[in-house]
Design goal:
The structure holds two protein chains of two kinds. Chain A has helices at residues 2-18, 25-48, 56-81, 89-106, 111-135, 140-158, 168-175, 199-217, 219-229, 231-236, 241-267, 278-288, 300-319, 326-353, and strands at 163-164, 177-186, 192-198, 269-270. By secondary structure, chain A is mainly alpha-helical. Chain A has one domain (26-45, 54-349): ABC transporter involved in vitamin B12 uptake, BtuC. Chain A is globular, with a radius of gyration of 22 Å.
């Protein structure tokens, strides 16, 4: 009998160990975001089904339109978890698009050299800004604000007008779609059309998966959380705080490079005003997904759903019939307020517990 | 004889203008809990910081494990390599990570985190030390005591031979302190040498084997706990010999004191700062004082009366009227003033002029929508600059350019301008020159003779004896006695601090 109870208890404790992280406030915020996304989606199918929301393609379009933003928001989440910020990603995206198009059209770049150029631009932005912020201890907001201006300025320096990709091979690749087996919609003529997914979405989802694993399972990923939670403590715990901050910005730059390339891949055009406010969309998505601006808390899955939730809200508001550009903005403002309020309530509740 | 794990010899350290440590020796054996005691500025923290490599020593030698060659420790990381770990008063862990992560993060070179292995290891460590926490629990969801213990567990797991606990108990409640003590005894049994820095005398006598006393940067001595009664410890910390009766108190004031009108009556008052419920009455025209060692709860008592800490229990009457003081402004409206202990942090507003600093409290009471005219403000400022003899070119000078003593006078003027019935002066004479000190003491007596009730707190016993007619004695957050008249002497104060009965305990 005794033996039995012992095995039971060890099994019990093993079971406990399997639940790696208990339900925390982070998990609560994440749950709310996911719930919000599905609620809005369900409601829009019920009430706006005739406007296209009941179509399966609509679901895939949500990803098609937001693939670049998902990747860029992942980068933002990383720097925000580390307690920093990067508002240069919109500028660097515009720079990547225009410079890549110029190289594609005039300098005989192919798909891979263009990709390399995009990554290089992203990494340079990340490395320089990361160096200034981590090692010279400059304010991240100011440094990346300068980065944002620099990006846009360089675009205008390269090409003032809006330009399009004029490269047959690239266009063919960018125009190709994955056909989803067995899923699709019947159109007005009664013909079944298979749902289409862009290749960029696959890249974005793979990156979400990698980042999720990275933040949870690697020493560097955990160091991001430690530094964002309390930089002074992290230092005392033996973490190289400066290097960690630098690497967070470098990683954000890399992801901005990939995101910028996906943006180009999707739009095939470039202009000075391109991707204006993209950095703010990414920050908003991270916050809606449960990342705290103060650092130390955040989840990549939340960020994914943050992008999707704000994406669907925009679609719904547009579908309701308001062509005015301000309604989507006002709705998003309301969403952000709601989530920040929620976060501050949770934070203050926590403080009281302490 | 047990092995010496740490030997410090002839340590010197000075900062500009201050000799922080002079020829200090310290020895720690394995399996020993060794209290490091001393009042403010005695050099405890400096010694700890020299040992952990935060400061570099000017001279002296540190030996570890009875080695022949001294070691040179340049950073906390190096100290850890030598087996010296420190757990600070403020917890230096990451609250957003799990308990297990806090135990292991930053200690390995592995690129990947094995959650399962870490959690199992953490479970073993936590169990062996009896720490009630789950490995996968987020640290911020643990109580402060458990967080403190996790910090200790981390230190212990790093194979430390010397564990420094720098005031680990100051933010814990009684139950939590007992748990921490159990953990410390467990570590002692494992032959870890523990240096325990604390202000709580009871804790030292409950737990420690030896005491090293420092005073003004010099070593007073090392004693076995059984050889040093509390009263002698107090005397050694304060630097007074017993039976030193050179101080003769002037009792003249007391007869003049009419105990007719109580300005402040506190009954079983306690606050969020952890102060134990205390009773206190202050009469019109009386100078009272709270005496005790640093951290004994002197300031916490008056902060509770002023509403600077959240009052949790008890009743407060001001001039016979029961009041609920939830914030300082309410206390100010009832005629209470509080000159805070930390002038730089809680007192002066450095960039504002003397004039603006003086009218601040009165302006707050009147409300910001009814600002004083510049002429009014100037008149107030000039009146008090003259009255208190503040040495300044004009009332427009920023307060930060004044000397400490003059800054203190400006803050005093700020409170006098509100014409309080009850004025609390918390360490008004710290860090100011002797001349100004005497002026402030005289001013206190003058104000009292004009009918104001004043509470005066100071670390200098002589100063308290000169100004106060009644002293409330505190130890370890308890009120342990009240002295008046002939009892007001250094000896009596020290005896009471060391061994007096608890007012609060008696009642329970």
């Amino acid at each position: 009998m005794k033996k039995d109870s012992k095995t039971v208890s060890t099994r019990h404790s093993q079971h406990k160990l399997l639940q790696k992280q208990p339900v925390t406030d982070t998990a609560f915020l994440l749950a709310i975001t996911i719930l919000l996304f599905f609620t809005i989606y369900a409601l829009s199918i019920i009430f706006l089904g005739d406007k296209g929301f009941s179509k399966i393609q609509m679901f895939f379009n949500l990803f098609n339109e937001n693939a670049a933003l998902i990747v860029i928001a992942c980068g933002l989440s990383v720097v925000m978890i580390t307690g920093s910020i990067d508002i240069s990603v919109g500028g660097s995206t515009a720079l990547i698009c225009t410079s890549c198009i110029v190289c594609l059209n005039k300098h005989g770049f192919n798909f891979f050299t263009t990709l390399l150029l995009a990554l290089l631009i992203g990494l340079i932005f990340g490395a320089v800004q990361g160096f200034l912020i981590a090692y010279l201890e400059m304010q991240p907001f100011i440094v990346t604000l300068a980065g944002m201006f620099l990006g846009r300025g360089l675009v205008a320096l390269i090409e003032v007008n809006q330009i399009q990709v004029d490269n047959a091979a690239f266009e063919a690749l960018s125009g190709s779609r994955i056909l989803i087996p067995f899923l699709g919609d019947v159109n007005k003529k009664g013909i079944f059309i298979q749902s289409k997914l862009e290749y960029g979405v696959v890249v974005a989802l793979v990156i979400v998966g990698i980042m999720f694993w990275f933040l949870k399972k690697t020493k560097l990923g955990r160091s991001f959380y430690a530094v964002g939670g309390n930089a002074q403590s992290a230092l005392m715990l033996g973490i190289n705080v400066k290097r960690t901050k630098f690497l967070a910005h470098l990683l954000c730059g890399l992801l901005a490079g990939i995101g910028g390339f996906l943006y180009l891949f999707h739009t095939r055009s470039g202009s000075v005003q391109q991707a204006t406010g993209l950095e703010m969309d990414a920050i908003a998505a991270s916050i809606i997904g449960g990342t705290l601006l103060t650092g130390g808390v955040g989840n990549i899955i939340g960020t994914l759903f943050g992008v999707l939730a704000s994406g669907i809200v925009l679609l719904v508001v547009t579908a309701i019939g308001s062509q005015d550009p301000w309604w989507p903005q006002i709705t998003r403002a309301a969403m952000l307020c709601f989530f920040i309020l929620l976060q501050s309530i949770i934070c203050s509740r926590k403080k009281k517990q302490d | 004889m047990q092995k010496k794990v740490l030997k410090m010899r002839g340590i010197y350290k000075s900062f500009p203008g201050v000799k922080a440590l002079q020829n200090v020796d310290f020895t720690l054996h394995e399996g020993e809990i060794h209290a490091l005691m001393g009042e403010n500025g005695a050099g405890k923290s400096t010694l700890i910081k020299v040992l952990t490599g935060v400061y570099t020593k000017d001279a002296g030698e540190v030996y570890i494990d009875e080695a022949d060659r001294p070691v040179h420790i340049k950073s906390p990381q190096e100290a850890q390599k030598h087996g010296i770990s420190t757990v600070y008063q403020e917890i230096t862990l990451c609250p957003n990570l799990t308990v297990a992560e806090n135990l292991f993060i930053g200690r390995t070179d592995e690129l990947f985190v094995n959650w399962k292995k870490n959690n199992q290891l953490a479970e073993t460590i936590l169990k062996s030390l009896g720490i009630p926490a789950k490995p996968a629990q987020q640290l911020s969801s643990c109580s402060i005591a458990v967080q403190q213990m996790v910090a200790i567990a981390r230190a212990v797991d790093m194979e430390c031979k010397v564990l420094i606990l720098d005031e680990p108990t100051s933010s814990l409640d009684d139950q939590e302190v007992l748990k921490l003590f159990d953990l410390m005894r467990e570590l002692k049994a494992r032959n870890v040498g523990i240096i325990f820095v604390t202000h709580f005398l009871e804790q030292v006598y409950a737990l420690c084997d030896k005491i090293t006393v420092l005073r003004n940067g010099e070593l007073v001595g090392e004693y076995l706990i059984k050889d040093l009664p509390k009263i002698e410890l107090v005397a050694k910390m304060m630097g007074k010999e017993l039976g030193d009766l050179a101080n003769i108190h002037n009792n003249a004031r007391e007869e003049a004191l009419s105990k007719s009108e109580a300005v402040i009556e506190a009954t079983a008052l306690s606050s969020s700062s952890g102060i134990r419920p205390f009773d206190f009455t202050a009469y019109k025209g009386e100078v009272t004082g709270f005496a005790g060692l640093l951290g004994s709860g002197r300031s916490e008592c008056v902060r509770a009366i002023f509403g600077a800490d959240r009052v949790t229990k008890g009743r407060l009457k001001i001039k016979g009227e029961t009041v609920a003081i939830s914030s300082p402004i309410k206390a100010m409206r009832k005629g209470v003033g509080y000159l805070s202990e930390d002038r730089k942090r809680d007192g002066i507003i450095g960039d504002l002029s003397i004039r603006d600093n003086i009218i601040l409290a009165l302006q707050v009471m009147n409300g910001f929508f009814k600002p004083f005219t510049k002429a009014q403000a100037q008149a107030f400022a000039e009146e008090y600059i003259r009255l208190l003899g503040i040495k300044t070119a004009s009332a427009d000078t920023p307060i930060s350019s004044l000397s400490g003593g003059n800054q203190q006078k400006v803050i005093l003027a700020r409170w006098l301008l509100t014409h309080p019935d009850y004025l609390i002066l918390d360490e008004p004479t710290r860090g100011i020159d002797i001349g100004t000190k005497v002026e402030i003491q005289k001013l206190v007596l003058k104000l009292a003779s004009e009918g104001m009730s004043i509470t005066f707190i100071s670390s200098e016993i002589e100063e308290m004896l000169r100004t106060c007619s009644r002293l409330i004695i505190m130890r370890d957050l308890y009120v342990v006695g009240e002295l008046t008249g002939d009892d007001l002497s250094q000896d009596r104060i020290m005896y009471t601090i060391a061994g007096g009965e608890n007012q609060n305990v008696k009642k329970q």
